[in-house]
Amino acid sequence: MISVIICSINKDLAQQVQKNIADTIGVVWESIIIENIQSPKSLTEVYNFGASKAQYDVLLFVHEDVLFKTQHWGKNLLDNFTNDTNLGLIGIAGSKYKSKAP
Question: How confident is the model at residue 100, as a pLDDT?
Answer without folding.
Answer: 74
